[in-house]
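Provenance and format

Records in this collection were gathered into a single text stream. Each protein contributes a sequence line and a token line. The two records reproduced below are adjacent in the stream.
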Amino acid sequence: MEINWQVRFHNPVWWLQIFLAVASPVLVYYGLNFKDLTSWKSVFDLFLNALKNPYILGLIFINVFNTINDPTTKGLSDSLRALGYVNPN
């Protein structure tokens, strides 16, 4: 599995996708919206409870996998073109 992590880490869109891949299943499972999280304590408690729930962890794993995987290539690797990138294209 060859993935150009350096380019992905420098891409703000990829970070947004990872954030949403983690936050969405948690919010949906508990029936919340972002506006319901009005303090850092409530955010911390919510994600602490999510880490204790194997169902939510499974959903997060699947979402992160889908964010990392490039469906336009065979297997789990980036294309040869993408592996040659120095900056996000």
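Adjacent record:
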Amino acid sequence: MSGFFSIDNPFFTFMGKVCDMMIISLLWFVCCLPIVTIGPATTALYYVMVKVIRRERGYVFREYCRSFKENFKVGTISGVILVLLAVILVIDYNFAIQMMQQNSMVGNIFFAVYCAIIMICLCILMFIFPILSRFTVTVKGLFKTAFFISIRHLPTTILLILIFAVAVLGCWLTVIGIVIIPAVCCLLSSFLIERVFKKYMPKPEESAEESGKDTWYLE
């Protein structure tokens, strides 16, 4: 019985991670409320899920705040750009449908372009904040890198979009899902994203010379 109540028991270890994931989801939700902070909030969400939950390095609240602060400027600008794009696309939705229903060549072309833009935005969205959590880049470089990686690894990108869609649907159907679904979505996505990131990471021996830098992601 003493083994069952040990903190190293697999059951308690699992439940501890579940509790941490719930805390992370709530942190993310609260930090997203101002809307303009969706970028750094999501960047910190991915950072903590990989570093704390998967690699067991550091503490949830401290690491989340660190990432949020370090990536606040670039993350906020990038997040605002994506939110504005989303608003524009939502506003143009009815217009695109109406043009397609006219059965004209122009209408079909416009709707195809509209769908292509949505797809491009989704592809960028799947990688932009994970990239920011790992690399130091400008806003312009961030969008270019996210687009390049998402297209180069298109099968992975499509799987990420499917995971994202299921998560959004889950939160839509049950509001209480916001307590755990964002973290679960991020965790599942990280297994795909980290496989991609490994192709762009420096070799351990190359980064070992960088004094004072925690290269936990190379382990």
